[in-house]
Amino acid sequence: MPIDLSQVNWLYVAVLTLMACLASVVGNLLSFNHRGMAAFLTAVAFAAMFVTYTYYPHGLPLPAAVQKTPVVAPAPVAVPATPQRPRNPVTDITPPAPAR
User: Fold this and answer.
1) In which domain, by residue range, is 15 found?
2) 23 domain-assigned
3) Residue 19's closest CA among 39, 48, 56, 61?
4) pTM (2 decimals)?
5) Is 19 a domain residue?
6) How far apart are CA 23 and CA 52, in angstroms?
7) Would you give per-residue pLDDT tens digits along the chain (100 residues)?
8) Are 28 and 38 in contact (CB under 8 A)?
9) Of 28, 64, 66, 65, nearest to 46 (Cα)?
10) CA pair distance 43, 23, nearest whole angstrom
């Protein structure tokens, strides 16, 4: 099976199903049994409920919230107390004499 059912957030699915059912009832009541109008009102009611549930700061833990991983700064590079001498044995930095 291509969908791993153990990874499905069933609480989120149940909440969305309940919202869709409630939106359908509201849409049918407001449309007086006109199917096209009922479908339109159901979509509007579901969108309103979904946006309210998802974005309103009501303090409830949202099942769909993505856990962001904290940004960890890289460890500082340790600087030695005394500078190391270069391994290059040449310590003279004067330019060489021009060739004749």
Assistant:
1) 10-55
2) yes
3) 48
4) 0.51
5) yes
6) 13
7) 576 778 888 888 889 999 999 999 998 888 887 889 989 999 999 998 888 887 777 676 656 555 556 667 777 777 777 877 767 777 777 777 887 7
8) yes
9) 28
10) 7
